[in-house]
Specification:
Blueprint: E1 3-9, E2 12-18, H1 24-33, E3 54-55, E4 59-64, E5 76-81, E6 94-95, H2 125-147, H3 166-194, H4 202-209, H5 212-215, E7 221-223, H6 224-231, H7 235-247, E8 258-260, H8 263-270, H9 272-290, H10 292-298, H11 309-314, H12 320-325, H13 328-342, H14 350-353, E9 365-369, H15 375-383, E10 388-393, H16 395-399, E11 409-413, E12 427-431, H17 439-449, E13 458-463, H18 474-491, H19 498-508, E14 512-518, E15 526-532
Parallel strand pairs: 9-10, 9-12, 10-11, 12-13
Antiparallel strand pairs: 1-2, 1-5, 3-6, 4-5, 7-8, 13-15, 14-15
Length: 534
């Protein structure tokens, strides 16, 4: 059974796999990936250090003991062989749960020429990727066929999701990762750049502005000419832009001159929050992104929430949320977009209620700072009725919030940049708050809390913890980096890695003692904990 440990050198993660040189896994490493195998001693590195967390070795990883996300060099994982058949053993995976099962990193070992022995790899990379796609697509197809479930389709009646069990969701992730890498490789470097269409969002802006998804019959069709007449724009321009979208599977043209829904466009028609998400992207985020570099040229320190790409795109000196709040329709749409974005298991409140020792607190006072309309507090109160909960929000939010009978949850108007009025509480929670603010403002939030703290008070921050670069599969890496840059676009804020989170507490006050971070399985947000030792 191979042993795996994780070490850090100069803040760069390296993963060491330890195998007996005679083991099947070690032989497979040496043969397929050209790794040297030098020792049976688990205290020495056997094979090359990796900055990755998946490889096709026919085994599954299990964490033994508690691990603190990335900054733990004591984390130990045991790998148990889980072969299923000779045909698929190479397609099964070792999956390091770092930081959560929702992250499924693809495997691509980094090799230098000096590390490569004379024996050549039996397969090229594109052949390896094609094999992964073929194997795991067959697994998914067989499952859908056996269960009588519909296969994926671009047609309007295609399934919204496949409803796969966890092991086949893993297969789906492998196919998506491998096919993306295969596509990128086969394009070649020139086309990889050339195929960045600058106007990819244009058709979505047209669809959103004129509400086209609602104007095309869900179970029918309409001609381009009738659709152009309905919205009052040039027929030829509509055709050209909408056909651009059709090329990306948004709408279909079943016959020349006729528009019908695809599976994707039907979702825009039927899901109001998804329609809001499209609208917010094309009208708020896209213009902001286009102005980011200009904003950095004008305000190179990038430290104020009103000196951003959004600021330039909107000709305003107001921060993002204040600017939106002055237009009720923009504010409503952005709220709908956030509801769509946070819908799903990755943002479920049970990650908060089930992954902290709330029971041990007894009749404690818990303050949810910036807690919106109290959803998190109500969830805690239902599960832990001994807790006394206070939800703090701006006055206009509190005015539209309601207490629930039988639950010990109170609302209190408060600006978290001002001194905390609830003294000596046991826990202060900030759920998905800090990522909206630049560092100097996050430090200000923490400093405003200090006068209220008693020794032993806990501060819980539930937010993203960014992984080190190039640890996750490229598809996940792209999404995370896009999210991080989005925060730069609209507020000069950021998604932080573990060291950056620790630094916030240290800069706020040295009496904050950082206690650790855990990534609840399946959660997009981690729970960071600090205690006040003043």
């Amino acid at each position: 059974m191979p042993l795996v440990t994780r070490h850090f050198h100069s803040h760069s993660p390296r993963l060491y796999l330890f195998f007996r040189p005679s083991s099947a896994a070690a032989l497979r490493l040496r043969h397929l990936y050209r790794w040297p195998v030098r020792s049976e001693n688990a205290t020495e590195a056997v094979g090359r250090p990796l900055g990755i967390s998946r490889c096709h070795l026919g085994a599954t990883a299990y964490i033994v003991g508690r691990a603190d996300s990335y900054d733990v060099d004591r984390s130990v994982l045991l790998f148990r062989t889980a072969r299923r058949s000779a045909a698929t053993s190479l397609s099964l995976i070792i999956r390091l749960l770092l930081p959560s099962p929702s992250y499924s990193p693809s495997f691509r070992p980094h090799r230098s020429h000096k590390d490569q022995p004379a024996m050549a790899s039996p397969q090229s990379r594109i052949a390896e990727l094609a094999a992964v796609v073929a194997t795991h697509t067959q697994r998914i197809d067989s499952y859908l066929s056996e269960k009588g479930l519909p296969p994926p389709s671009f047609e309007a009646d295609g399934p919204k999701d496949l409803g796969l069990p966890p092991d086949l969701e893993q297969s789906r992730s492998l196919v998506l990762d491998a096919s993306q890498e295969l596509n990128d490789l086969l394009q070649g470097p020139r086309n990889l750049l050339f195929n960045h269409e600058h106007n990819r969002l244009l058709y979505l802006k047209l669809i959103s502005r004129f509400n086209l998804a609602r104007k095309v019959p869900v179970d029918g069709e309409i001609t381009f000419s009738d659709l152009a007449a309905t919205i009052g724009i040039d027929y030829a321009a509509l055709c050209r832009i909408l056909r651009f979208g059709i090329a990306f599977r948004v709408f279909r043209e079943p016959r020349p001159g006729v528009v019908a829904h695809s599976a994707a466009s039907r979702q825009i028609a039927e899901d109001a929050n998804l329609a809001d998400w499209v609208g917010a992207n094309v009208d708020e985020m896209w213009p902001s992104a286009e102005k980011v570099v200009d904003a950095l040229s004008k305000w190179p320190l990038a430290e104020e929430p009103n000196q951003t790409g959004f600021s330039l795109a909107n000709g305003t000196d107001k921060p993002f949320y204040l600017e939106l709040s002055e237009d009720p329709e923009r504010a409503r749409r952005f709220g709908g977009a956030m509801s769509f974005f946070t819908t799903g298991p990755g943002y479920s409140l049970h990650h908060l209620t089930d992954n902290y020792s709330w029971d041990s607190l007894g009749a404690a006072t818990v303050v949810d700072v910036g807690g919106s309309h109290g959803d998190a507090a109500f969830a805690l109160a239902r599960k832990y009725p001994k807790l006394h909960l206070v939800v703090q929000e701006l006055p206009e939010v509190v005015a539209n919030s309601k207490e629930e009978a039988g639950l010990d949850v109170k609302f209190l108007a408060h600006d978290f940049f001002e001194e905390q009025p609830v003294k000596d509480a046991d826990v202060y929670i900030y759920r998905w708050i800090f990522h909206n603010w630049p560092d100097k403002y996050c430090i200000k939030i923490l400093k405003a809390l200090i006068p209220a703290l008693k020794r032993g008070s806990r501060v819980l921050i539930m937010d993203f913890v960014m992984p080190p670069p190039c640890v996750l599969p490229n598809s996940v890496e792209r999404k995370l980096r896009a999210m991080d840059v989005t925060m730069l676009e609209i507020g000069n804020s950021k998604e932080r890695d573990l060291d950056e989170w620790k630094s916030l507490f240290e800069q706020a006050d040295q009496r904050f003692a950082f206690k650790g971070v855990q990534q609840p399985p399946g959660s997009n947000l981690a729970i960071l904990e600090a205690a006040w030792e003043g």
